[in-house]
Design brief:
The chain is of the alpha/beta class. The chain is 23% helix and 34% strand. It is built from 11 helices and 25 strands. A hairpin with a 2-residue loop joins strand 4 and strand 5. Helix 8 crosses helix 11 and helix 9 packs across helix 10.
């Protein structure tokens, strides 16, 4: 892999109650790095009026409610599951009163949601003529042990498949309405858990997801892996497909909900994909790119929530991919709780849509737990892609590693805010966090803030952020080996992004994401790339 920039800011902490916040600023060709504890200034909304945004949000929320009441109905629940889902609506009502999240709130300072609040939703706004196996072929992984297809919130049994390996291992993959196994108590606890405890400021949208589920417009997908089961090498795939609307005034909305309950000593790979119907039509990266480029009239909002319970000594690999039309707004919320000796690994790819945000929260609850998080954001044109995370070390002897990369071009904006919290009992914590960003145009922006909050006194923690444009000496060297200027730049950008992409085990997803990297580079005017700028907290 070609390294674009080798500089790194790190911080080691040995003092209880310490907090370190590195802030990166750079312009021109070379980045500079400073560490500051200066309080952040408040930032107004884009149009200078919080009131205007709130007014838009009021009408927007009413539109969401009307859409939910007129959309297709989810599978009916009964018993304890029905009671648990009903409770989601009650819990959501108070939280939704705080909509929209104010731009003065730290977690939303750089993510302008006005484009979302301008949307109005119409259950007939999309061409809802039914997805087919052919239309979803590009999204399906051939080697999957099970594939669950959700279209516009509703489980599609005729498009879903469950292999023999899943049944023989006692694994359940399907809608909550069809599960009645021994782990029901744990599954319902995941459903009703207060995911806001991870403090990643997504409470409004997780509550909105809960309200949609309680209204009966979304089937909850459940993955239950019993203790000792081993599905390594044969992933469980969940595809949430949403039919886009034709305009902002007739957009569509989806509220995907996924619960993953993994027993002690079990191993499983979960692939979670969020797609727009126009994006997955056809097969291969070419079809994806053509559909994405042509999807200017495809409007949808996806508000997803996934909760994962990792049992003692269990191993979970979790891949989250957003492949949506150019005008889509996607909010993906992922929360994981890791037991003693367990390993949870998340790979998140966010490269499409108008606004994309992945909110990741993890709690290391048992001694010796490990969390590994790798993610990539591509921001081109006027895209905004954002990753917020909070990894909380609660138990002693736990480890975590986070690597996030941004590639920004055009007037795109990429945002990273990652927080590692070490509680006082979490002695002998070992945590690493790094954000690396590559800017390809003079109007692109990256905002990066890695944060450590340490309350223990025996830890080893590092964090840092780097930013760079392409090294022209490296470009020249590649050209001297016979590559064109554009191919040389692609080789370098591919090497930078490939460190994340190559962690995905599935060639079709890798190929489509690499094609998006190429598209991002092809859109860059070489004259703009010589003065890349960077905006930081």
């Amino acid at each position: 892999m070609v390294k674009v920039d080798d500089s790194e800011t790190s911080s080691s902490a040995q003092t209880a109650g310490s907090a370190a916040v590195p802030s990166v600023t750079a312009s021109g060709d070379l980045p500079s790095t400073t560490i500051t504890d200066t309080p952040h200034a408040e930032v107004a909304t884009t149009d200078g009026s919080v009131f205007t945004q709130a007014t838009r949000a009021d009408g927007w929320l009413e539109s969401v409610r009307a859409f939910k009441s007129s959309g297709p109905a989810a599978t009916a629940l009964s018993g304890a599951a029905a009671d648990a889902v009903a409770g989601l609506g009650t819990a959501a009502s108070e939280v939704l009163s705080s909509l929209p999240p104010p731009r003065r709130e730290e977690a939303w300072r750089f993510t302008d949601l006005n484009a979302l609040y301008k949307m109005r939703f119409d259950a007939g706004g999309g061409a809802r003529d039914g997805a087919t196996a052919e239309s979803l072929a590009a999204a399906v992984i051939d080697s999957a042990a099970a594939t669950v297809i959700i279209v516009d919130g509703i489980y599609q049994p005729q498009l879903s498949t469950v292999g023999a390996a899943v049944g023989s291992a006692g694994v359940y993959v399907g809608p909550l309405a069809g599960y009645a196994g021994d782990a029901m108590g744990g599954v319902l606890e995941l459903l009703t858990a207060n995911n806001c405890e991870t403090d990643v400021s997504a409470s409004v949208f997780t509550a909105l997801n809960g309200a949609a589920v309680a209204a009966g417009t979304s089937d909850v997908v459940v993955v239950v892996v019993p203790a000792g089961s081993d599905l390594k090498g044969a992933p469980v795939q969940v595809v949430f497909s949403t039919t886009p609307g034709a305009s902002k005034a007739a957009a569509t909305a989806a509220f995907p909900r996924l619960l993953v309950h993994v027993g002690d000593g079990a191993t499983v790979e979960v692939v979670e994909q969020h797609v727009g119907a126009s994006v997955v039509t056809g097969v291969g990266a070419g079809a994806l790119m053509a559909a994405t480029d042509a999807a200017d009239g495809a409007h949808l909002f996806s508000d997803a929530l996934t909760t994962v319970q990792v049992g003692k000594d269990a191993r979970v690999s979790h891949t989250v991919v957003n492949e949506v039309p150019a005008q889509a707004v996607t909010l993906s919320n992922v929360y994981a709780r890791a037991g003693a000796g367990s390993t949870y690994g998340l790979t998140a790819l966010a490269a499409t849509g108008a606004i994309g945000r992945v909110t990741f929260g993890a709690e290391l609850l048992g001694e010796g737990a490990h969390v590994d998080s790798t993610s990539l954001c591509l921001a081109d044109g006027t895209q905004v892609n954002d990753l917020h995370s909070r990894i909380e070390h609660v138990a002693p002897g736990c480890t975590s590693n986070q690597l996030h990369k941004n590639v920004a071009a055009g007037r795109g904006r990429a945002i990273f805010a990652g927080k590692v919290v070490v509680a006082k009992p979490a002695q002998q914590t070992d945590s690493k966090q790094l954000c690396r960003s590559l800017l390809l145009s003079n109007r692109a922006q990256v905002d990066a803030m890695p944060v450590l909050l340490i309350n223990a006194d025996d830890v080893k923690c590092t964090h840092g952020a780097t930013v760079s444009d392409l090294n022209e000496d490296e470009v020249f060297y590649c050209q001297s080996r016979g590559l064109s200027a554009n191919d040389a730049r692609f080789l370098l950008v591919k090497g930078f992004a490939g460190e994340i992409i190559d962690r995905v085990a599935y060639p079709s997803i890798r190929d489509r994401t690499t094609a998006l990297v190429r598209s991002t580079l092809d859109s860059v005017d070489l004259r703009d790339s010589q003065f890349a700028t960077h905006s930081s907290i």
